[in-house]
Structure prediction request, 357 residues.
Amino acid sequence: MRTGITYFLLLFLFLVSQQLVAQDDETLKYKVEQLESKKASVAQIEREALKNEVEMINKRLDNGEISKKKAQELKTEAAEKRAKNIDNKVAILENTIELLKRKGAVDLNTDINIIELGFGADDSEGDVLFGVKYNSGKQKKVIYDRRTYGDPIIAFGLNNAIFDGQSLNDSPYQIGGSRFFEIGWAWNTRVFKNSNAVRLHYGASFQFNSLKPEGNQYFVVNDGQPELEEFAFDLKKSKLRMDNLVFPVHFEFGPSKLRQNDDNIRYSIANQFRFGIGAYGGFNLGTRQKLKYEIEGDNVKDKLKRDYNTNNLVYGLSAYAGFDSILLYVKYDLNPIFQDATVEQHNISLGLRFDLN
Prediction:
């Protein structure tokens, strides 16, 4: 048992580390692409600035403020200055890219310190600059996606019970006739502030678990013991339903698409594979048995609302896996269905879950 738990924990840590590495790689790739894009625009910005300076020099020449020789000298100086600006700025960006690649993902708000001098000319941002501009390469603060959001969930499928020491094949309940339904609300929170590698999935749900006995049997309680007995008439329907309020908590894993621009970062799990493992706990709100049968041509429906000695506390393990909002879902009650039963029974469910986001 301890070996199995140790193996599970190691697997859990490995999956978390893989998700973190993948997310960091994606963020690093984006930052490098942004710097490469800025490097490509440096030459264009400087050429536009040079063009504006040349136009101003030509206007001074036309107005007779400077000689033709002086105008040519100023144009040559401006061209040399802009060429050096291009070389220096590109070198800074290239060094930053190399630093990112060596160090891995770093803070998205890292500043690129650039000092620019200007007297009426356009700076690297396209603004008219008079004097000194510092940190012109500073990146905008990135706004991360909301960390928590909630959506309704619906699940349904097959329900049954496993008896201690027996297999599911030995169950006295019909496989197809016994079903479950769940409806609730679940929140999803990123465990890490700047990564969507692991999410905490939690909320509240109403669960309706039903058991349909084989043959013409129904539930009775004899001396505190729930038992199946043959009914006196031919049953058209016999079903026991347990209504629970539970609070599930899952750790969810799976890739997500990173969508970024200059202002924000968004994580999307649309059309992505994901899986979650966790547990739930709650309360039994009520138990009732429905019987349908016929007496001398008259249809009779009995709805018997009793506790049938079912447990008041409900708790168990659950897991899900799938793509996008359609998930295969399984849950298993660790608590016995009936209190003080000679042979314990544990509810088990398998079906589909839909996250209605």
Summary: The longest strand covers residues 273-295. Confidence is low (pLDDT under 50) at residues 105-138. The chain is about 25% helix and 45% strand. The longest helix spans residues 2-62.
